[in-house]
Amino acid sequence: MQENLLNSVIKITKNRDVDSLEYSLISTIQEFIGCKEVSVYKDIEVQGQLTIEQSLCLKVTGEKQFEWVQRQIVAQPEDELLSCLRSACIITVQSADGIERRWLPITRQEKTVAAIFVVSNSLDSSAQVILNAFCRIFENYLVILHENERDKLTGLLNRQTFEKKIKQLIEKQVLKVHGSVREEEKRRPKQASTSWLAILDIDHFKNINDKYGHICGDEVLLILAQKMRHFFRATDLIFRFGGEEFVIVFEPTDAESISNKMAEFLQLVRNTSFPFVENMTISAGLARISPYDFPITVLESADKALYYAKNNGRDKYCIYEDLLAENLINVQVNSSEIDLF
Q1: Model pTM above 0.85
Q2: Beta strand pairing status for 157-158 and 237-242?
Q3: Rounded distance, CA 263 to CA 228, Å?
Q4: Do residues 246 and 238 touch, judged by C-beta distance below 8 A?
Q5: At how many degrees (to 10) do helices 205-212 and 214-231 cross?
Q6: For the segment 230-267, what is each residue's pLDDT rounded down to a tens digit?
Q7: SS3 annotation, 45-112
Q8: Environment class of residue 68 by beta-carbon count within 10 Å: exposed (0-12), middle (13-18) or buried (19+)?
């Protein structure tokens, strides 16, 4: 028993990203507690409002049969989950048939950021101790991974996590289409709902730093990062690539919707009051992500679209596929300025 516990702790702490850490935690709890269901819920805060995401869930569907439920927003969180997140206390409810539903808070920097939900038969004291211990290990290690994955200034995802995140996204798309949709997507590249990548760059940011100093420049970056977090969907991934450059990986949507969204965000930036800076604008380049793309290829496409926007007036967004269709850029792959790996 002790050896198995130590091996499980090693398995949890060998992870180097939050997603893998969650998988390890849930599978370990299931192994030692024998649950009917284990879930991770997160408070992801959208536009300053409490927004709950079920990050990952494991359900037992039969003897030695399991079902993994992937990421989704919870439209109507249960009262017990909300109480757990708000009070940072363990909440336990037992039904007449002896089934326990238990919510355990996960905190970071004295703020409750998540809750582990467990459905099981009534747990004895030793099982409760093990469950609490695994949650505390997860909590402590989550702090370390969060610091490694996040940009120190803005709190956005950092450049180092980009490759892993986008590869995971592309792998999921491959599983969904499984080949047969590929030809249809080639015939209808803009009608299909697909993921998108955008590179955003603050126009004339060097002038802001030179004229007002780096403290003012940092404040501009912070405000812009906050605007992006509040404006875009909670499931869209926002990265700071360094300097004044940001990358957003959008959940699947159609070309018209992503165009409207980017136009709205550029207008939001125009209307935002930044310290000392009047009429600040951004430029953006977008490219669609197909299930068979390499991450660097998508980045290069979006970078070309951004380069075109910068050289044709700034304060606009351009879509790579539109530029190709209009023969405004060529498809030949040149050496990119992006130095990722």
Answers
A1: no
A2: parallel
A3: 13
A4: yes
A5: 140
A6: 899 877 899 999 899 999 999 888 999 999 999 999 99
A7: CECCECCEEEEEEEEEEECCEEEEECCEECCCCCHHHHHHHHHCCCEEEECCCCEEEEEEEEEECCEE
A8: exposed
Max Cα–Cα distance, the chain, nearest Å: 70
3-state secondary structure of 330: coil
| The pair of three-digit structure tokens given for residue 123, joined into one six-digit string | 């747990």
Displacement of CA 248 from its chain's centroid (Å): 10
**What are the backbone dihedrals phi and psi of residue 100, each rounded to the nearest 5 degrees, phi first?**
-100, 140
Domains of the chain: 2-149 (3.30.450.40), 157-325 (3.30.70.270)
Of 176, 302, 186, 172, nearest to 245 by C-alpha is 302
Tell me which residue of 78, 81, 90 sits closest to 128, measured CA to CA.
90
Paired tokens of 283: 């430029």
Instruction: Report d(CA 66, CA 140) in Å as an integer.
Output: 28
Q: Using an 8 Å Cβ cutoff, are 32 and 56 in contact?
A: no
